[in-house]
Specification:
single chain, alpha+beta, Lipocalin, 10-stranded antiparallel beta sheet, 10 strands
C-alpha cells in the first residue's frame, strides 16, 4: 500500500484548515480585494426614515449618501467600510420641520454636519443566490457627536462589469440594502428642553431603509466650487413676501 509521510499529513491538514477558514464566496468573475465608491453626487443612493408618534407621522428622505467600502467577492468576511449622510441633505417634506431638524435642539447640523457609519467587520454572512448574500454589518454609528456600537442587517448583491452595466457606470458594482432602527435618545437627541415633542410628534425610535450603490470606478474629484459649497451646511432659501 502507498504510504504518506508525516509532512504530507501535515500539509493536507493545513490545506483543510485553510479551506475551512475561507469566507463566503459569490459566483463572480472578479476575485481579490476591491474598493467600491458610493458617490453622493449621483443621487441613486437613498435613505428613507420614518417617524410614527402619537400625534404625527412623517417620512423623510435623503438621496445623497457617500462613502466607500472594501471587500473580496470570494471572501465576503473581508467587508469593511465607511458611509456618510449630511444632515443638511435630509428632507422631511416641510421646510420648517427641516429647519428644526438641523437646529441645535435636534441634529445640530452646524456642529455635527454628518451622520457617519463605520463598518469594521461583518457577521452571519450567508450566500442566498449566486451573486447575493445577507450579512450583519458590525461597527459604530456617530450622530450629533455621540458614537454607539451598531449591528445592521444588510443584503449585498454583486454585479460583474458587463456591456449592459457599462452603459450606466464603469467597473464592478455592488448594491447594499438594509432596514433597521435607531433611537434618538441613544444619541442625546431629546428635542427642545422641557418639551414633550418626543413621543407626541416625533418618535424616539426611527425606522430606516437604506440603499447604496457602489462602483469600483473611482468618481471624479469635486470641483473647487462644489467642494466649497459642500463644506457649508445648506440653508433654506429665503421666504418670499
Amino acid at each position: 500500500m502507498p504510504t504518506v509521510s508525516m509532512w504530507g499529513v501535515r500539509l493536507v491538514a493545513l490545506s483543510a484548515a485553510s479551506g475551512a477558514a475561507a469566507g463566503v464566496a459569490l459566483d463572480t468573475k472578479a476575485s481579490g480585494p476591491k474598493t467600491f465608491y458610493a458617490d453622493s453626487r449621483v443621487g441613486n443612493n437613498q435613505m428613507t426614515f420614518f417617524s410614527q408618534s402619537t400625534l404625527e407621522d412623517f417620512t423623510g428622505v435623503c438621496n445623497q449618501i457617500g462613502g466607500q467600502c472594501q471587500l473580496d467577492p470570494k471572501d465576503l468576511d473581508t467587508f469593511k467600510g465607511r458611509f456618510t449622510v449630511r444632515v443638511a441633505d435630509m428632507d422631511t417634506g416641510i421646510e420648517l420641520r427641516n429647519e428644526h431638524l438641523r437646529s441645535a435642539d435636534w441634529m445640530d447640523a452646524e456642529k455635527h454636519p454628518e451622520v457617519v457609519i463605520e463598518v469594521a467587520s461583518v457577521a452571519d454572512v450567508k450566500k442566498t443566490a449566486a451573486d447575493t448574500a445577507t450579512m450583519t454589518l458590525v461597527g459604530k454609528c456617530s450622530i450629533r457627536g455621540k458614537t454607539n456600537d451598531v449591528r445592521i442587517p444588510c443584503t449585498l448583491k454583486y454585479l460583474d462589469e458587463t456591456p449592459e452595466t457599462m452603459r450606466r457606470v464603469k467597473g464592478d458594482l455592488i448594491r447594499l440594502r438594509s432596514e433597521f432602527k435607531l433611537k434618538l435618545s441613544d444619541y442625546g437627541i431629546h428635542g427642545p428642553a422641557g418639551s414633550d415633542i418626543i413621543g407626541l410628534k416625533v418618535s424616539d425610535e426611527i425606522e430606516l431603509r437604506v440603499t447604496v450603490f457602489g462602483s469600483t470606478e473611482r468618481p471624479p474629484d469635486a470641483l473647487a466650487a462644489d467642494a466649497d459649497q459642500d463644506a457649508q451646511p445648506r440653508r433654506p432659501p429665503p421666504k418670499r413676501p
